Amino acid sequence: MLGVGFLDSLNRKPVTVSGVTGKGLGSDSVLYNNASVSAIYLPLHTTKDSTNYAISFKNGESVINDTISVFHKQETQFVSPACGCVPIFKVDSFKVKNTGRLYKTIELYSPEVINVEQNINVKIYF
C-alpha cells in the first residue's frame, strides 16, 4: 500500500484532515469516504506501471478535487514456501492535477512501497 501522510507545513508533524474522500480511477470502490485521517493507504496496480486516484478534500462548504497519478515499477520478492511471493513497488514519480490546492507541497519521501499500512511514502503538507 502506498502510504500518504498529511503533515503540518510549519512543524512537520502529522495533522488530521477532515472530509477526505478517495477512490482509484477506473474502479467503483471508494477507499475513503468523507474520512478524518492523518494518513491514507492506497493500493497500487500489479499489472500496470501507473495507478490513478481521485482524491477530494472538504474545505468548509466547498470540495477540492485532485487527481494523483503514481508511476511505479513492480518486483516480486520471495518470502517463503508457505507465503509465496509478495509484490514490492518502487515509485518513480507522481503527478498531481488539482483544481483548488488546499495543501502547500507534496514530497516523495520513501519510494519503496511494501504492503504494510504503517509506512509513509508520500508526504502532503498543509
Biggest sheet overview: 6 strands, antiparallel
Strand arrangement, major sheet: 3-2-5-6-7-9
The quaternary state of the protein chains shown equals single chain
Q: In percent terms, what proportion of residues is strand? A: over 45%
The percentage helix is under 10%
Order of helices and strands: EEEEEEEEEE
Count all strands and give the number: 10
Question: What spatial form do the alpha-carbon principal axes imply?
Answer: globular
Keywords for this entry:
126 residues; mainly beta; 6-stranded antiparallel beta sheet; 10 strands; globular
Task: Describe the fold and architecture.
By secondary structure, the protein is an all-beta fold. The chain has one domain (2-125). It is built from no helices and ten strands. It has strands at 2-7, 17-24, 30-37, 39-42, 50-59, 62-80, 84-98, 105-108, 112-113, 122-125. The chain has a six-stranded antiparallel beta sheet, with no helix packed on it. Strands 4-1-10-8 form a four-stranded mixed beta sheet, with no helix packed on it. A hairpin with a 5-residue loop joins strand 2 and strand 3 (30-37). It starts with a strand and ends with a strand. The relative contact order is 0.25. The model has no long low-confidence stretch (mean pLDDT 91).
